[in-house]
Every structure is written in structure tokens, then in C-alpha cells.
């Protein structure tokens, strides 16, 4: 068969490539259906201030409750829609769901900002800040400051002027930004200094291994040192143990998120977690003095 194809040099497409495109197309169609059928949902992971135990917010993380495959993490399906306009559709859906959840929590007396991940494609949509404004108007009962956005450093650096304009307009709406997965891209704090970023999130890959890998420790140390020099708050992702937390507080990082604190959970489990969290041994009494 390969031989046959080799002779037909005018056949510029490779049938296996063609098959791949078809699979991608089918996967995207299936994803659109999932979005329409409410098979997607948001999990929430708490973010805390380590020295006080204070819960400062939650991050919304998308999940796909697939009827056959079970609960799928974003790594399983976000690549299907990467760099397509479906990312915008998904992003709008996530923002809407987060605000609806925010209304429910406000009614229950839970007042925590929700951090929503925004894809580069979505952030750089021309009227992004208008869409955010309309979203806030649709949910006017939610106090301001309750929506925060997480963007990858790569998104911001791709078109820094456009990112700067959009982010500034959002900031005027009281929507602040975190730089996600900091340390994995090619930018540096010196570039990010230009952007209205209120929080730097140190990528979990460095944090997870910082206690066993000297290089990761060096990266974590330098990011914390620089962020403090630039007076930018930072949060460590991937805090899996109390030992991680102690080390981070000692280095001067105040905020954390990770399995050691809480796994991402369905919205209805959050109230109970909030009730139990203050009783967690060791976690609520970390002070810089103690651990140094
Ligand atoms: P992210 O924004 O960096 O989110 C943190 C990821 O780390 C989450 O993975 C979370 O479950 C995981 N994580 C939290 N604590 C720990 C820990 O202690 N150890 C380890 N090993 N992992 C931890 P998840 O939920 O699988 O999400 C993966 C990525 O998918 C996110 O990374 C984000 O980039 C993307 N994502 C998730 N939800 C959305 C969304 O609604 N929209 C967009 N555009 N992207 C999303
Ligand atoms: Mg994030
Ligand atoms: Mg991250
Ligand atoms: Mg990530």
C-alpha cells in the first residue's frame, strides 16, 4: 500500500494524517455535545494563607463527567480544543458557572473569591473585557472582587500590548490577575513587571520536588526572592505536605494550594471542608519565626 502511494506523487496528503484529523474532528464534536449536555462541571480547590490558616479563595478546575469514561481531568480533554475557538466557548461557560456558584455561596454566607483559569485564546479575544463587564452585570448581586483570573505567563507574553490593555480594563472592573504556572515559560519577572498582576503562582512541578531536588529548590527560592523584591504576593501550587508548607513559609511565601491542604472538590463539599479545616493539626500555626 505504501508502495502504491509512493508512485502517486500527486497525492499530497497522507491517509494516516487524514485519519488523525478525522479523529480530532469527532473528538471536538463530542466535546461540543458534552458542553451542551452539562457533562462538564467545576471542582474547587481552596487557597490558604499558611501562617494563619485563613482561606483566601478557591480555584475553579474543570472536570468532564463522561458517561462512559468516568471523571476526566482537564489534561485528558483540553488538548482536543487547544488553540481553537472552542476554548472561548468553554471559557465563557466556566465563567458563567463560577458566577452562578458564587451567587449560591454568597447566599450561604461563604465569601471567597473564585479564581478562574483563562486560556490564552480567550484572554486575547478582542472584546474580552467587555464580556467580563457583561458577566459582572448579569451577576450584579455578587460583591466586587469575587472573580479573579489566572493566566499563563505565555499568554501574557505572546502579545504583551494586547494583554496589558485587556488586563488593565479588567482591573478597573475589580477583576485581578494571577500568573499561573510561573517558572515554566520563557518570561521573567522583569517582563511581567509591566503587567497588572496581583499574584504569582509558582508552578507545582518545582514545589512538589523542592525538598528532594536541589535545582527545583533553587528555582523556588529565586522566584520567592524576586517576587518579594518586586513586592508581588505569591502562592505556591503543589503543596502536598506540611514539610512543603514549613519550607515555603521559611522562604517567605505566604499562600499555598495543594493536596496537603485540600484536593479539588465538588462545590457542595466546600462548606464542610471549611468547617473542618481549622482543626487540621499543624497547618494553622506556621509562622516564619517558628520554622526558621
Ligand atoms: P492549573 O491552573 O495550574 O491548576 C492546578 C492543577 O494542579 C490542577 O490540576 C490541580 O488539581 C493540581 N493540583 C493541585 N494541588 C496539587 C498537588 O498538591 N499536587 C499535584 N501534583 N497537583 C496538584 P487539574 O485540575 O488537572 O488542571 C490542570 C490544568 O488544566 C490547570 O492547571 C489549568 O491550566 C487547566 N484548567 C483547569 N480548569 C480549567 C478551565 O476551566 N479553563 C482553562 N482554560 N484551563 C483549565
Ligand atoms: Mg490555575
Ligand atoms: Mg498552575
Ligand atoms: Mg498547570
UniProtKB/TrEMBL annotation:
Domain EAL: 24-278
Stretch forming the signal peptide: none
Record's protein name: Phosphodiesterase
Residues of the full protein shown: 278 to 569 of 574
Amino acid at each position: 500500500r505504501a508502495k502504491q502511494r509512493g508512485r502517486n506523487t500527486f497525492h499530497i496528503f497522507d491517509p494516516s494524517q487524514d485519519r488523525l484529523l478525522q479523529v480530532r474532528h469527532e473528538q471536538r464534536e463530542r466535546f461540543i455535545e458534552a458542553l451542551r449536555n452539562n457533562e462538564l462541571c467545576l471542582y474547587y480547590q481552596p487557597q490558604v494563607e499558611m501562617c494563619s490558616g485563613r482561606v483566601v479563595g478557591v480555584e475553579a478546575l474543570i472536570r468532564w463527567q463522561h458517561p462512559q469514561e468516568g471523571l476526566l481531568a482537564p489534561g485528558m480533554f483540553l488538548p482536543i480544543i487547544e488553540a481553537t475557538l472552542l476554548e472561548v466557548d468553554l471559557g465563557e461557560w466556566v465563567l458563567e458557572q463560577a458566577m452562578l456558584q458564587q451567587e449560591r455561596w454568597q447566599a450561604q454566607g461563604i465569601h471567597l473569591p473564585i479564581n478562574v483559569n483563562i486560556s490564552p485564546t480567550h484572554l486575547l479575544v478582542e472584546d474580552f473585557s467587555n464580556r467580563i463587564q457583561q458577566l459582572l452585570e448579569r451577576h450584579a448581586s455578587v460583591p466586587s472582587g469575587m472573580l479573579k483570573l489566572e493566566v499563563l505567563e505565555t499568554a501574557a507574553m505572546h502579545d504583551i500590548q494586547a494583554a496589558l490593555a485587556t488586563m488593565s480594563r479588567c482591573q478597573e472592573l475589580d477583576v485581578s490577575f494571577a500568573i499561573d504556572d510561573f517558572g515554566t515559560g520563557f518570561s521573567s519577572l522583569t517582563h511581567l513587571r509591566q503587567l497588572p498582576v496581583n499574584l504569582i503562582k509558582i508552578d507545582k512541578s518545582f514545589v512538589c520536588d523542592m525538598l528532594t531536588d536541589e535545582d527545583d529548590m533553587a528555582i523556588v527560592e529565586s522566584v520567592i526572592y524576586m517576587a518579594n523584591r518586586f513586592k508581588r504576593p505569591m502562592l505556591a501550587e503543589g503543596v502536598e505536605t506540611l514539610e512543603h508548607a514549613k519550607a515555603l513559609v521559611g522562604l517567605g511565601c505566604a499562600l499555598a494550594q495543594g493536596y496537603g491542604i485540600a484536593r479539588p472538590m465538588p462545590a457542595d463539599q466546600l462548606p464542610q471542608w471549611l468547617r473542618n479545616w481549622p482543626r487540621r493539626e499543624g497547618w494553622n500555626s506556621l509562622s516564619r519565626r517558628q520554622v526558621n
